[in-house]
Amino acid sequence: MSHYKIAPSILAADYANFEAELKRLEATGVEYVHIDIMDGHFVPNISFGADVVAAMRPHSKLVFDCHLMVSNPEQHIENFARAGADIVTIHAEATQHLHGALQKIRSTGMKAGAVINPGTPVVLIEPVLHMVDQVLLMTVNPGFGGQAYLPEVAEKIAEVARLREKKGLSFDIEVDGGIDNKTIVSAKEAGANVFVAGSYLFKGDLQANVTTLKAALHD
Ligand code: DX5
Ligand code: ZN
Questions:
Q1: 170-188 tens-digit pLDDT
Q2: Is 39 assigned a catalytic role?
Q3: Cβ contacts of residue 78 below 8 Å, gap of 6+?
Q4: Which of 22, 71, 124, 219 would disulfide-bridge 42, Cβ 3.0–4.6 Å?
């Protein structure tokens, strides 16, 4: 299994045909599907919830990488566990109980992720780095696909990679937003190894776009 992973975001997929879209994704050889959960409160947009994840679960063997852009995510963890999520990543800005919420995610058997927005300093998640399987650094302000990559986040990616090294940890570093065949290179060079992409992948030929991203990673 490669160190580098591409995580297509179904926020950019055909919502009327999730089963078929999951099959298309599996056919490209990706291991993850990134599922953007939005509550219309923590972010201005509403997408889908745990019931949609549960409906998708029987139709796919992909890793369900759920990104909870919801307020008080601790209230939803059990629902996503029951729905069959593999990874639940929560925003440090969205809860007063980040440590407890991450403990709760892991207690269900799911992998835990912490995510911060472009304007949030890494120090906010430093106390929980020892208890996550992935750190997600938003390279756009969350809520919508199709936005431009924020190059200033590279510094934060490098800072998280340095902290991981210093603490002898081994979590993945995921980036999310505006990833294409060019920005994926700078995110990789900064230290990321999991790359969420929505609009880049789902516009035009999905397989060709996955192949182009893998080639950009020299993977
Ligand atoms: C934005 C979501 C991202 C988004 C990525 O809030 O978290 O996962 O779907 O979409 P693109 O790749 O189009 O920026
Ligand atoms: Zn996302």
A1: 999 999 999 999 999 999 9
A2: no
A3: 108
A4: 71
